[in-house]
Amino acid sequence: MDRREWPLWEVFIRSRNGLDHKHCGSLHAPDARLALQSARDVYTRRQEGTSIWVVRAEHIVASDPDAKAELFDPAADKIYRHPTFYVLPDDVNHM
Amino acid sequence: MSVAIADDLRAAHVDYLLRLGDSALILGQRLSEWCGHAPVLEEDLALANVALDLIGQARLLLSHAGVLEGHGRDEDQLAFLRAEREFRNVTMVELPNGDFARTVLRNFLFTAFQREVMTGLQGSADAALAAITVKSLKETRYNLEHAAGWVVRLGDGTDESHARIQRAVDELWPYTEEWFAPDAGDEALAGAGIALCWSNTRGAWTDAVTPVLEAATLVIPAGTAFRSTGRLGVHGEHLGPLLSEMQVLQRTYPGATW
Amino acid sequence: MYTQAMDIAAARGEDPAPGQVTDAGYQAEFDAKIDRGDFIEPKDWMPEAYRRTLVRQISQHAHSEIVGMLPEGNWIGRAPTLERKAILLAKVQDEGGHGLYLYAAAETLGVSRDTLVEALHAGRAKYSSIFNYPTLTWADVGVIGWLVDGAAIMNQIPLCRCSYGPYARAMIRVCREESFHQRQGYDLLLAMMSGTAAQRDMVQDAVNRWWWPALMMFGPHDAQSLNSGDSTRWGIKRITNDELRQKFVDATIPQAKLLGVTVPDPDLRWNEARGAHDVGAIDWDEFWSVVNGNGPCNQERLAARIRAWEEGAWVREAAMAHAAKSEARAAGGR
Ligand SMILES: [Fe+2]
Ligand SMILES: [Fe+2]
Predict the structure, then answer these.
(1) What is the rounded CA–CA span in Å between residue C277 and residue C253?
(2) Which of the listed residues A42, B26, C127, C256 has the most CB atoms within 10 Å of its CB?
(3) A46-87 residue pLDDT tens
(4) Chain A residue numbers touching B40 (CB-CB < 8 A)
(5) Which CATH code, of 1.10.760.10, 3.40.50.720, 1.10.443.10, 1.20.1260.10, is assigned to B9-252?
(6) How far apart are CA B15 and CA B230, in angstroms?
(7) What is the pTM of this model?
(8) Considering the domain A3-63, what is its CATH architecture?
(9) CA angle, C323 then C326 then C332, to 5°
């Protein structure tokens, strides 16, 4: 008998229109149709969602935590991207 | 709903609501037996959701039936204090769950039927019934989609799953005949714009279930002379034990509130 | 608690010595994160002992949720009103959801759900012993919600801030759902206490049977629980067994009074000096006996889980076969 485990799917839910889909957990399903249905049954029992995405976990490409320094630290010194970098005269500082 | 309904029409009306409500209740009772025992955790949650939908529908329908009946019986008195012969559910829903194939096939056949009936009831002159069906129809559409997916998965899956679900088709199909038998009460209610005749849903139901069964490579058995009669209050032998379990507390402790 | 057996493994010396440092740099970074109260995420480096401890704790927790469906599930079919039936079914369904979230959290540590489930079925993994007691009357449903879910919540709220991100997030979801469990249980008992004498007797009987097992849920006394050092540091265990137990008793006794029931402990006293209740001696022999498989329902609980799993094998297999066929057909049609 084929005892392979059902593949893992990651579930993303939009809690209401106007918001992004947000990762909320995972589940096992043999196919996309059931993955979507199970996501509804598992993760929206209390009206948590208006839209669901499911993605096979193996299809997600993730950044390497070891590369965190080169990926994210270079942004740290570009403080001129932030509005607070610029001190304007009081009269226009709400800009 | 007009207060001036003739008594016989009222009786047929109550009966009609009980057929729908009892069928939902008994199937909900059966499905809740799966809770904690399903083939995979995700299905534990899915089947419980279906059961919760059905119990919710039953509560609305029985409450409405109780009001219409006018003897002051609420949903619980109707559910827990009626005897077997007073239940009006179709026989198929009282049968034991059997295996997962039989469970999903029954869900599929019955929810497809529910969908046709509820679709027709949305314009009922009984405004309360119309409102109940508008709400229930959304649940039913989803539950049908979930069950249909499983029918195809099992029919197309492995030799074993195919054999199991084909056996379920062979065993359950004869119980569908009951749903479409002509009924004088139905006709009177249809004439008054309150209900639709179940017998009129056969075409749409057949059109709905046939493509799914075909996609699942399942064969519909030839007709037989067998007719179940649960909706007339004449059940098989499985309803009694089911009710003994379901009603035990209300029967054992009369007058208690829970 | 739901993960009581953790303490047990350590107490018996079954636990391998915690983490040999494989890489001093990584270890230092990990320690710094823990000290700052940062979260550890799945792909981050972590000491092997941390990973192993988490897998064991989270999976035991998940198993407890799943096995925990059975005692209350016993009463779904007999719930006395349709509303109570719906509430109980939704509650037991939630527990299945909790198991699912927790298995998912454990899977982020690189172990599959099937592997964890097989460990449960083979008797290698534990679940909370509380679920090895039988539910004998409808009042048991209420008492489980009130005492068992109540005890569980006490343990679980601190875990919402534990150091492992997926576990903490799962616990937030669990705790959000748990709040209704305890309340529905107490509500059910209030209804029974305002009913007939027979109903009140049923409630008192249920409290008598569940009180001590509920206190045992918090695990052995702190002095006997050896595994807490690392777990405390990692934020996986934030409050000790005895502290939690005390908190539970102090919160529960006034609720019992309001309900109109007593707890079966002749030595229970309010200790003015401590500002807390003194509790009588817990029968640890009973506790160990149940942990070791001799509780009233150990065999049945595990057998029910194994049966569901084995009888469902053909379903799971068929779904995979259909998915493979569908993919092949789609590829062929292209
Ligand atoms: Fe839970
Ligand atoms: Fe709970």
Answers:
(1) 9
(2) B26
(3) 988 999 999 999 999 999 888 888 889 898 888 999 988 999
(4) 6, 28
(5) 1.20.1260.10
(6) 12
(7) 0.94
(8) Roll (3.10)
(9) 140
